[in-house]
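To illustrate the input format used throughout this study, we show a single complete record. The first block contains the structure-token representation of the backbone; no residue identities are included at this stage. The design step must infer an amino acid for every position from geometry alone.
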């Protein structure tokens, strides 16, 4: 009986190894934030190894559709990776994703679902539902800019996140929305984390798209969420000025 169970477990090892390595294969392609003004409040928190309050706002891919454990959503993975990269840093993250939400819907929720949490950093994931529902992407650039300005007015840092590289998105008029997001980020001088480029480059490098997306062809798999969250954490740390890009050293005798 035991030998049979052992043989069954050994037979599963290749599949388990593949599932566990998909996120790492995705992360291996690397993805940086676009160049923009420094994330001042985030840098201060990382330099001091203190506390960092983050709000992630967006739609179902922020909420983490198909994930029952919040730690396995992209915001959950962002938190754990930041704390791994910067021991001593305490990250409080609020997941304000809402299924089927749009850019105007996000902005309408800012006061309650973002500003009430007094964030140091807001990660705003946008664009997916505005495209798949065939709304005009070009007309939404102004809404993105408006939202960025509202967040800035509260003193928080902003990072934009674009669409996912997934079959449903690729079958849409996604390029206009991608351009709109990039234009708004450039206009307002805020960094953009392109999960679209991260996932695309991973797939072009040989990783199966099905390893990063769920069966619905839109939302991320567990590895897709892990790659997005961990990749964003690494990009944020890499964007810090040189003197903030390493953990603060203890003084001798302290």
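Output of the design step:
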């Amino acid at each position: 009986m035991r030998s049979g169970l052992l043989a069954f477990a050994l037979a599963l090892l290749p599949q388990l190894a593949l599932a566990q390595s998909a996120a790492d294969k995705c992360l291996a392609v690397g993805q940086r934030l676009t160049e923009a003004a420094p994330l001042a409040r985030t840098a201060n928190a990382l330099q001091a190894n203190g506390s960092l309050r983050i709000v992630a706002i967006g739609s179902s891919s922020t909420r983490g559709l198909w994930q029952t454990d919040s730690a396995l959503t992209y915001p959950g993975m962002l938190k754990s990776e930041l704390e791994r990269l910067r021991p001593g840093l305490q990250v409080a993250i609020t997941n304000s994703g809402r299924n089927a939400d749009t850019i105007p819907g996000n902005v309408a929720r800012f006061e309650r679902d973002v500003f009430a949490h007094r964030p140091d950093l807001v990660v705003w994931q946008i664009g997916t539902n505005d495209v798949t529902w065939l709304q005009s992407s070009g007309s939404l650039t102004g809404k993105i800019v408006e939202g960025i300005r509202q967040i800035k007015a509260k003193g928080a840092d902003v990072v934009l996140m674009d669409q996912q590289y997934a079959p449903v998105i690729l079958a849409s008029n996604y390029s206009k929305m991608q351009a709109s997001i990039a234009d708004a980020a450039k206009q307002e001088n805020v960094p953009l984390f392109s999960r679209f480029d991260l996932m695309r480059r991973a797939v072009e490098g040989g990783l199966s798209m099905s390893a990063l997306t769920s069966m619905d062809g839109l939302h991320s798999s567990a590895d897709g969420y892990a790659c997005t969250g961990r990749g964003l954490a690494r990009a944020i740390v890499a964007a810090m000025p040189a003197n903030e890009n390493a953990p603060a050293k203890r003084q001798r005798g302290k």
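Structural context for interpreting the output: The two ends are 58 Å apart (CA to CA). The CA atoms of residues 202 and 208 lie 8 Å apart.
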